[in-house]
């Protein structure tokens, strides 16, 4: 039997898989804490500069700054205001730069050595570097630790998503992928609550990072992906994991034998070229990758641009962060409904949500600055966040279905790399309002609309077969004739 038949035998989403998936999706809460950390600990309280003689040194400049708000952050500790204010955004960008490098390195690495070792080692190191952030003696150490935390966070984010897909049957992929994104959104809201209860930035950072210790201890019990083992030709180990799943699910399996043909395919030297190079040289994968990279870039730019700007909005910074997290919650059942309808599917749903997000951001540009309708702008921004969250979630699910198992992590890694480029730019986009108040939302609008249109070039994957190898992606069937290959990508 093949892998899908095996999952139907042992249980596509039995009690054991529910437990394993729960551990991984709850880890997203910790990852959300790390992603949103700079929003609160890098927040700038009210301050004024005393009228004194022009200082002759940076030390005298620090002494002139007086904070009028009782708030503790890296800004108040290291006086990151005026000419030093850029360091707050720089720390946020360094985190996303780490995510980018982590996607490049850890994605293909998990395709080579396995999902489980990459996930566990990345999570352990992220916790270690997270404590370095909490006890950093200087801004330089703080910034370096944020880069390293981002490196590990980016490495395991893709692996987490792939694992929750590969632990269950294909019919549950959309649900498990959505749960991953949903827990990340809930994590943003929980971080706002944690920040409200714990105000000193070092205490907040320590408390947020301590959740990672708990999730690491729970993750040690997770098995290797049986799909990855199968694609690597380790059929015996794949059968062992599947039998263990069946036993924990309460199913009696006496004759679980996977096809050995995969081992022969993988052992062929010409067919082991499943790294990043295949994403460039393979004609089908090349076009898909280019389109998906831009879609992910735009999703990230709009998503994180709106979210990171929450702390700068009027009103309580904690309430704003919580709202930008909770507004995502209805996006996930919404996208789950549409992506499983034959008249919508993955492609149309993702493109539509991107266009709606861009349109909502564009509408904020039409509101005059002098009307005082801050609430209307906020509501439109929240609507844009809701729509781009739905599109982002679909992009994860859709991308995993567009790539064969043998190269899935590499494909997701490259797309996430492009996503992190958008994340690196995102902290600086809200600050572009110094040019004009409409510039940030104009950038978000153009990004969403263009990505939505470009996404229509991709093929639909709803109810289609899942490719395990590159041969299955371009194998000679009656539905993949040479002429059709030139137009269907």
UniProtKB/TrEMBL annotation:
From the UniProt record, which GO molecular function terms apply?
transmembrane transporter activity
- Domain Major facilitator superfamily (MFS) profile, residue spans: 20-463
Predominant localisation class: membrane
Q: Where in the cell is it found?
A: Membrane
Q: Does the keyword Transmembrane apply?
A: yes
| Record key words, sorted | Membrane, Transmembrane, Transmembrane helix
- Mind telling me what this protein is named? Solute carrier family 22 member 15
